[in-house]
Q: What sequence folds into this?
């Protein structure tokens, strides 16, 4: 359509009519005279609107989904945090229970030997000391610790204190190759010297080359002069192998230590030695031997008497 005077007048007229219809529709409310026309228009253009709505709704749904996804992600993250906190709490409780068991066992050992101990916790493996088997504990000079004190736990001999700082100390473990401790056999009182061999059994040289030793025999510390570095009676280990006696002045045996040196946690440093040697009182009780079950033999008696067997005709 060309831009003429007539077309402009027609456009103005149409706009005026549209405003008049809008005014009439607003003033008429529900009784509006154009309501019928509105319904007719809805009938004509409704399917088109539904089609457009179907095309647009996936986008709206996607936006809603992203929003819901964010909310779900936040909830999942919250649940994950709660789960992690719960696991940490349970882990902490398990660790505390383990420490309580270790402490209880150590106190029983100290009580049996009448050792005055200072409890401590292993806080580091002694890599700074080279390839030695050492650990660092969280007690030191401020706690009354000194060099050459015996260290034990609920199982037995752990080692001895070698270096003391204000709040920490270094312990040389009993399985270190530089570690040596005097030992005494439980059954025969044979004396010897045990040396560490890393992750292998302790090597014990018995002073008596003809000592009667068998697998399963147990050893404790013999004790040192003035109880340093070792107090007497601390369980060392159990014999697992005995070298054949070759007429030497000494005899070599191998002992599995009671202590697991790769899983140390709670330990005790003996700050006061016992008044008397506890001898074998600290060793764990031996398991009771099972009593033999009595066997009852039932012999069946043949039916009939010997006279019947011979026959009386």
A:
């Amino acid at each position: 359509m060309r831009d003429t005077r007539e077309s402009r007048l027609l456009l103005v007229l149409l706009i005026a009519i549209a405003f008049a219809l809008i005014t009439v529709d607003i003033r008429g409310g529900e009784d509006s005279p154009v309501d019928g026309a509105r319904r007719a228009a809805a009938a004509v253009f409704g399917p088109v609107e539904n089609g457009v709505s179907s095309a647009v709704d996936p986008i709206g749904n996607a936006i809603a989904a992203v929003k819901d996804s964010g909310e779900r992600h936040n909830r999942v993250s919250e649940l994950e945090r709660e789960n992690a906190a719960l696991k940490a709490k349970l882990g902490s409780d398990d660790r505390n229970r383990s420490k309580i068991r270790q402490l209880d066992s150590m106190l029983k050992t100290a009580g049996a030997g009448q050792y005055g101990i200072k409890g401590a916790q292993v806080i580091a493996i002694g890599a700074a000391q080279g390839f030695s088997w050492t650990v660092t504990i969280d007690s030191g000079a401020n706690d009354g610790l000194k060099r050459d004190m015996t260290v034990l736990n609920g199982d037995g001999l752990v080692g001895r204190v070698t270096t003391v700082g204000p709040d920490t100390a270094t312990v040389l473990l009993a399985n270190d190759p530089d570690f040596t401790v005097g030992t005494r056999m439980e059954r025969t009182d044979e004396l010897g010297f045990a040396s560490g061999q890393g992750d292998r059994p302790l090597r014990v040289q018995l002073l008596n080359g003809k000592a009667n030793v068998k697998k399963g025999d147990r050893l404790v510390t013999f004790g040192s002069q003035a109880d340093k570095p070792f107090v007497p009676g601390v369980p060392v280990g159990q014999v697992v192998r005995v070298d054949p006696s070759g007429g030497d002045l000494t005899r070599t045996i191998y002992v599995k230590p009671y202590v697991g040196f790769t899983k140390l946690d709670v330990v005790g440093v003996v700050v006061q030695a016992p008044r008397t040697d506890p001898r074998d009182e600290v060793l764990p009780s031996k398991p009771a031997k099972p009593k033999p079950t009595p066997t009852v033999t039932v012999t069946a008696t043949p039916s009939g008497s010997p006279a019947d067997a011979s026959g009386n005709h």
The longest helix spans residues 35-113.
